[in-house]
Design brief:
Helix content is about 50%, strand content about 10%. It is mainly alpha-helical and about 100 residues long. It has a single domain, classed as Winged helix-like DNA-binding domain superfamily/Winged helix DNA-binding domain (Arc Repressor Mutant, subunit A, Orthogonal Bundle), CATH 1.10.10. About 25% of the residues are buried.
């Protein structure tokens, strides 16, 4: 994962929309998705930049895309990615995540 992708996914996790502050809280919630408009506002990026991050992180099995006909697509963090973080770093707060080795 590149440094820019690390910053993107860390911000994605911090601004998860459900109030979860740790990996395990987010795993328990399972309602923490975002759409392009959410990400544009939270990350200060345009739709093309977001698309690049989403595409790359989906290929790396970190995010998955829920294609919704007639509604904005939703982006979710894969449980397997969160479980890997939990295994390596415990139930860590998102602001303290170290994603450099993942």
């Amino acid at each position: 994962m590149t440094q820019k992708e690390e910053r993107f996914i860390k911000e994605f996790l911090i601004d998860n929309g459900c109030g979860a502050g740790t990996v395990n809280e987010l795993l328990e919630d399972n309602f923490s998705c975002q759409c392009v408009e959410d990400l544009k506002e939270a990350q200060g990026l345009n739709a093309q930049e977001i698309g690049g991050f989403i595409s790359s992180l989906e290929k790396k099995d970190i995010l998955w895309i829920e294609d919704r006909i007639g509604d904005p697509d939703l982006f979710w963090v894969n449980d397997s990615f969160l479980e890997e973080i939990s295994k390596e770093q415990g139930d860590i707060e998102f602001s303290r995540l170290d994603l450099s080795g993942l």
